[in-house]
Structure formats: C-alpha cells, structure tokens
Write a structure and sequence with these properties.
Strand order of the largest sheet: 19-14-13-24-25-37-36-33-30
Largest sheet: 9 strands, mixed
Number of helices: 17
Shape: globular
Strand content: 25-35%
C-alpha cells in the first residue's frame, strides 16, 4: 500500500489530504504559528494513527508529499521578513518607491504608501552599466561595491537583493557583486535578479527580487526545517512544494527563488477546481475559497487556470513571477466584527488560529464571523466541529457581540449577528463582481465551485445574488487546497527577454533561448527523478503591440519527450504574429492588424505527470429524499425558523435535500438556502441548484 499526501497550511487550520489508492482521507488541525512545521508533523501523526501505523512506517510508504505554504504570504502580511538591503545600478535605487506611479486606490488621498521592506538607507547604488545588448558600458567599481556592502553590514542586513540594469542579457556584474557580498558578509542570503526574474521591465524585476530577498530567508528556513523533520521521521523522498503558477517542484529548484511559493496554498485549490470541474462538465468556473482568514476568488475558463506573469500585486508589492490569478479579500471565519460611530466593520483583521474566534474556546475575546453564524444557528455548539477535534462553545460569544457590535449599533445581538453575516457576504460578492468584470466574464455564465471550511456556508446565497444557477461543493471542500495540491503536476515556468520588432526577430536566437530554458528545466526535472521522455514542453512567445505595456503569451508548439525545436522554422514568426492578432481580439474585442507587433521574450512551461486523484461526476443513482437528523432554530436570511439539519455521513449518492436546510459534514457546513436544492452525485459531491417551483 502506497500513499500520497497533500498539505496546505492556512492562517487558522492546516489541512491534510491522504490519497490511499482511490480513497481520499481528510484531516484538519489548528495551525501552529510559532513553528508551522510542528502542526504538519502533528497532522501526519494523526493520519498515521488512522491507518494503524507509526509515523515512520507511514512515511516509508508515502510516494510523495506535496505542500502548499503561506509562509511567504504571512511574512508580507506580518512584515517580519529578513532585514534586507538592495544593491543596484547607481542612480536607480528609488525605483521601489516610484512603483511606476501605481496606487491601489487613486481616489484615496489619505492612502499611505506600503511599508518599505527596504528603506532608502539600505538601497545603495553601485557605479556600473550594462547596455541592453549585454555589452559593458561601464565596468563594475569593486571598491565602491565593497564600501556599499560594508555599509549594509553595519546596519545589520541579513539578506541582500542585487538587481543591476540589463543583467538578464549579461549577469557578469551581478555575479561579481554576489561574490563580494559573500566575502564581506558571510552567511548573508543573496537574491540575484537574473536568477529570480531574468526579464524586463526594470521595476518589475527589482520589486520581485526585493520581495524574494525579504521573504526568502523565512521561506527557506521553514522548508529546511520541515524537510529535516520529515527526514528524521522517516520520509525518504523529495518534498514537493506548490508554486504560485499552480505546479509543484522540489526544494532544490526553489532554493534561489523561494518567491515562487507565494500564494501557493490558494493555487492548489484552483488547480483542484479545474480538475473537478472538468469531471463534472463545468469548464467555466468561478472558484471561491473561504477559510478562517481570507476569501480567495479565481475564474477558470475552458477548464484551464493559466498562470500570468507581469503585473501581479500581492500584499501591496509587485511580484512578476507566473501566478494563478487569485483575488484575495480579508474575509474569513476569523474576520473580526466591530462597530464604531454607527458603522459596522467586518475584517480584514483576523483572530487567526491563536486565539481564534471566541467560540473556539481558545481565549479569543473579539467577535468574529464564525461567532456570528453560530448565533444565527448556521453552526451549532452541539455538533462536532473540525472533524470532532473540538466543540464550539457559546460562552462569551453573545456578550462580545453585544459589547462590540450590538450596543454601538443600537440593536439586538441576533440582529447584530445577522448584519455581520450580511456585510461579509456583501464584501465577498462585490469582490467577485470586480474580478469577473476585469476578466470580461458574466457570472451568470459560470458555475460556482465553493470550498474551504466556510465557503459552502455562503455559496448558494452568493450564487443567488450573482445570478448563478449551479453550485458545486466537493465533499473534500474543507481541505480542498490540500486535495488540489495532489492534482498539481511538477512544472517549471520560466521566461527570457528578447525585445525586437516581430518582423526583425532572429529565429536562431529564439531557438537558442528556448533551448537554454529547455536544458535548465530538464536538469531540475531529471534531478527530481523524472525521465526526459515524460517531460512535456510548451514553447511560447510574449508579443504586444508597439506602445503597450503588457504582452500576451502565444503558444508556439507543444512537444513531449526529446527536445525538438523543428517547429521554429522560417514561417514561425509570421504565424505567431497572426495568432497574436487573433488572441488579442478574443481577449480584448479588437485587434490592430495594420500594426506590426513586437516580441518581448520567450517562455517555456516544462511539466511532467504524477498520479493524482480521479474525480468523477454524474447522477446515475436513483434520486430520493434524505431524512433530516434533527431540527434547530436558525436564520437563513429570512428570520429564525425551525430548520432541518442533515448529517453528511448519513447521505449517499442520489440523496436529495430541499432547502431551507443545513448539512453538517465532518469539516464543513453546507447551507441550503430557501429556494435551493442539494443533491449528491455519484462521487458523493454536492450539487446545489435553484428550485423551479
């Protein structure tokens, strides 16, 4: 018996998905913010106990552990990264603050700039200059470089980001600066822009390198600690890590650019959504993930969750590595509710895992969304919670809601709880409208797929407000990012810059760049134990119209196995430019066919296949009404009524539940709002649809 394990660490819970042949076993335990690797080991010990094994025995039978982590995200949120310095070309040290003039809210005159991860006193310019073609205009001044490095050392700098002009065409000066840093500051963490993001534009590259330098030591320390703990516990294989592009790779590959694990946890859920959506005939998906701390939204088109590079802003910093597009809102079960001057506020502050909501009984004193929906009866202190790991309590909940919400709003505690429910739902629905509008999508054309511990609580009411008629809730939804990690495949997604008018492009140079990327990807994938014949390469070009800031990625060829660049012939560029016009029209509704596009670079996505869960769909079982387990007083948006409560463990494929009703699964609660029905499909997943009469 061999196993595969997916792990996702959230702000409140750490989720585990154990794949045992075709059986999927879920587990949750509270995250351990003081040392997140401890929570991982504790969860693995629980899984081993479920299988009647010691941890070492289980780990010896595990083919792969795939891990999505929020360490990089938490570092940026909590602003506790490494003390970082920046070495750059003289005259360019203020790019981080100029930010291309970008401001998240141009109408808010009081909006402060983001906290400086590298203040100006730790951003130092070095006399040197590489031209756009890689030639040296001014040699590196090593005496000035040593002086700057010593100034950083006197400030206690732990991590040094190095980003010089046009280093992606000639990295010689960055490499030498790294050598000097190693001599003057032994042990300092070093981030080189030509390794982190070897492409233009300049601001995107320096920002990404700076963020990598800031979070890199924390991420690397955590990964190393977890790897050591797993090895000591008996795990003998590579730890595979989720990347922001939705693929997975080894610790060795991510060592120089740990920024690629930013937002990797949510990316796992999106990849899992694409897989399960295909199985259920829903390739146009709106994915919503509401956990304990945040609410994540993503749109899947044609069954794909493409990763985009370039203008990716996370936690107010630009990170230009390829990322699955996810909108994150500070709205989760742990979001704190408060009122002042007659105004209700829900989030973005969160109670997190420690102390958590008041109803967790862990010492929390501030009311949260989870506390509010407990008062509404959507959750119960009489039911098992988080798989029976603990029970909710009402002690202190109503008193806190009264003090912080009801009294300031001059209303009852139950009305205060309902207002908290309404506001957090409105915030999430508005985030969906904003994202779909940006993507040119109409929510009514999409199927909503809800997951996370709290996603199914709000899914149907959000769908109703958005005009969506079909909602999917996987039975594994409370640990879906961990489940999705098991569906992710090893992938390396990298780019190289080559800025040239399309008609003047040198096909030989394009082949050279693709070959360089191919050989680099092959090296890391072979180190991870994969065979060349199993590697699939997707060759792409980045193209734009003159004057545009951003490029579109156009597919050139898909090749499996031996490196084959025979597609890159004389007609390649002409064909690619024609495809670009067509793609631009489909994306934006217009194409400037009279203009000659320009190429900005090449891209290669190299991937391979590993076993993953088999998702299924369909309704072959006979449909019959389920019998409720009990009733309780609950408010599902139309006042308090006696509401049918169903136990998920009692339901089997074909079972039908008519709303209003509440279904209590082991790790989540599915609210079937008035006007909605729920039915279990052949896989035991829930499909919610609107009532027709």
């Amino acid at each position: 018996m061999n196993y595969r394990i997916g792990i996702d660490i959230g702000g409140t819970f750490t989720d585990f998905a154990l794949l045992k042949d075709r059986e999927l076993i879920l587990h949750k335990n509270l995250s351990t913010p003081e040392d997140r690797s401890l929570g991982v080991i504790q969860g693995l010990e629980h899984l081993a106990a479920l299988e009647g094994k010691k941890l070492s025995e289980l780990l010896r039978q595990v083919d792969a552990i795939i891990h999505g982590t929020t360490v990089a995200d938490n570092t940026l949120i909590e602003m506790n990264g490494a003390l970082t310095g920046l070495l750059t070309t003289e005259g360019f040290r203020d790019e981080l603050e100029l930010r291309r003039g970008y401001k998240e809210d141009i109408w808010d005159v009081r909006l402060p700039p983001p906290p400086q991860i590298i203040p100006r006193r730790r951003r130092l310019g070095i006399p040197e200059r590489i031209r756009f073609d890689g030639s040296v205009h001014a040699s590196l001044d090593e005496d000035a470089a040593r002086d700057a490095i010593r100034r950083l050392a006197k400030q206690g700098v732990e991590s040094v980001a190095i980003c010089t002009l046009f280093s992606f065409t000639n990295p010689a000066h960055e490499i030498r600066l790294a050598q000097l840093v190693a001599e003057e500051m032994p042990g300092a963490y070093i981030s080189l822009s030509h390794e982190v993001l070897p492409k233009s534009p300049e601001f995107e590259r320096v920002s990404t390198t700076a963020v990598n330098g800031y979070v890199g030591p924390r991420v690397s320390e955590y990964i190393a600690k977890l790897s050591d703990r797993l090895k000591d516990a008996g795990y003998q294989r590579h730890l595979l890590l989720m990347q922001s592009n939705g693929g997975v790779m080894t610790q060795n590959y991510l060592a120089r650019s740990p920024i690629r694990v930013l937002a990797s946890g949510p990316a796992g859920g999106v990849i899992g959504s694409a897989a399960i959506g295909k199985a259920k005939g829903a390739t146009e998906l709106l994915c919503v993930d509401m956990g304990g701390t945040s609410y994540d939204v993503s749109v899947i088109r044609k069954g794909m969750a493409p990763a985009q590079s370039g203008w990716n802003w996370h936690h107010r910093y630009l990170v230009a590595v390829p990322m699955v597009q996810i909108e994150t809102l500070g709205a989760g079960g742990g979001s704190i509710c408060s009122a002042a001057s007659g105004t209700l506020q829900v989030g973005p502050a969160s109670a997190g895992a420690q102390p958590g909501p008041i109803c967790y009984g862990q010492g929390g004193t501030l009311p949260t969304v989870t506390d509010a929906i407990l008062v509404l009866g959507l959750l119960s202190d009489e039911s098992d919670f988080a798989g029976g790991s603990f029970q909710l309590t009402r002690d202190g909940v109503e008193a806190a809601l009264k003090e912080y919400v009801a009294d300031p709003m001059n209303c009852s505690v139950e009305d205060a709880a309902f207002d908290c429910w309404r506001l957090v739902n409105a915030n999430m629905t508005q985030a969906v409208r904003r994202l779909t509008a940006q993507k040119g999508s109409d929510p009514e054309d999409l199927t909503l797929l809800a997951y996370g511990g709290n996603g199914p609580v709000f899914a149907a009411i959000q769908a109703q407000e958005l005009g969506i008629s079909r909602v999917l809730v996987p039975r594994t939804s409370p640990g879906f990012s961990a489940t999705g990690a098991l569906a992710a495949q090893p992938s390396i997604d990298e780019e190289r810059s080559y800025i040239v008018p399309g008609k003047e492009a040198d096909v030989d140079h394009l082949r050279h760049l693709w070959k360089e990327l191919d050989q680099r990807a092959e090296s890391y994938l072979l180190q991870a134990g994969f065979k060349r014949d199993d590697i699939h390469c997707r060759y792409q070009l980045n193209v734009r119209y003159p004057g545009q800031n951003w490029s579109l990625t156009v597919d050139a060829a898909d090749v499996r196995g031996a490196q084959d660049l025979s597609f890159a012939g004389e007609q390649l560029v002409e064909n690619m430019l024609d495809r670009f016009h067509q793609l631009h029209f489909s994306e934006y509704g217009h194409a400037r066919t009279s203009e000659a596009p320009e190429i900005t670079g090449v891209r290669l996505i190299a991937s391979t296949q590993i076993p993953k869960p088999q998702f299924t769909g369909g309704f072959s079982a006979e449909c019959h009404s389920a019998t409720p387990h009990k009733q309780r007083r609950a408010n599902l948006g139309q006042g308090y009524h006696s509401t049918d409560i169903y136990r998920g463990s009692d339901l089997v494929p074909g079972h039908f539940v008519r709303g209003p009703a509440i279904i209590e699964e082991a790790f989540t609660t599915i609210v079937v709002y008035p006007g909605w029905n729920a039915q279990l499909d052949d896989a035991g997943d829930y499909e919610l649809t609107r009532q027709t009469n």
